[in-house]
Write a structure and sequence with these properties.
Helix content is about 50%, strand content about 0%. By secondary structure, it is mostly helical. Helix 4 packs across helix 7 and helix 5 packs across helix 7. The protein is globular. The structure holds zinc ion.
Length: about 140
C-alpha cells in the first residue's frame, strides 16, 4: 500500500469548487464541543467514527451512514467528501470494497482535523478543558 499523504491546500481548493461540500458549517454547539473536549479528544472521536463507519470493506448502510449533524466530525465528513466509501473513492482515490489501511484511516483523520481547525475558528470564547493547540502533520507531497 502506498503511503497516503494529505496535501490540505490542494484538497481545500478542490472542495471549494463543490457547492455541496462548501456549504457545510459548524454549529455553535459543534464549536462548543470542540472547545470543551480539546483537539486530542476530537481526533479520537474522528478515529473511532472512521474505524467503525468507514473502514470496513463493506460499511453498514454505506452511502447513508453519516448524519448531517450531531457531531462536528459528521459535518467534517460531508465537507471533506469522507462521508462514505463512494466519496472516498471518487474524491480521494481510496478504492471501495476492501478495508481501509491504518495509513488511510490516519489520512482521513488528518483531513477531518484540517477542516475542523479552520471551520472552528477562534474558540477562545468557549469554556475549555482540553488542549486547543492542534498540530496537524504537515505533509506537502502530492497524493
Ligand atoms: Zn459520501
Amino acid at each position: 500500500m502506498d503511503e497516503v499523504l494529505l496535501n490540505w491546500p490542494e484538497l481545500r481548493a478542490r472542495l471549494a469548487q463543490s457547492r455541496f461540500r462548501s456549504r457545510f458549517r459548524l454549529s455553535e454547539s459543534d464549536r462548543a464541543l470542540i472547545a470543551r473536549e480539546g483537539w486530542e479528544t476530537i481526533a479520537g472521536h474522528s478515529r473511532k467514527i472512521v474505524r467503525e463507519r468507514l473502514a470496513p470493506a463493506a460499511p453498514r448502510n454505506d452511502g447513508r451512514q453519516t448524519p448531517m449533524r450531531g457531531h462536528p466530525v459528521f459535518v467534517a465528513q460531508h465537507a471533506t467528501a469522507t462521508c462514505c466509501r463512494g466519496c472516498l473513492a471518487k474524491w480521494h482515490g481510496i478504492p471501495a470494497g476492501r478495508p481501509l489501511s491504518t495509513e488511510e484511516i490516519e489520512f482521513v483523520v488528518s483531513v477531518h482535523l484540517a477542516w475542523l481547525r479552520e471551520a472552528a475558528g477562534d474558540l477562545s470564547g468557549f469554556p475549555s478543558q482540553g488542549t486547543l493547540d492542534l498540530i496537524i502533520p504537515q505533509i506537502n507531497s502530492e497524493r
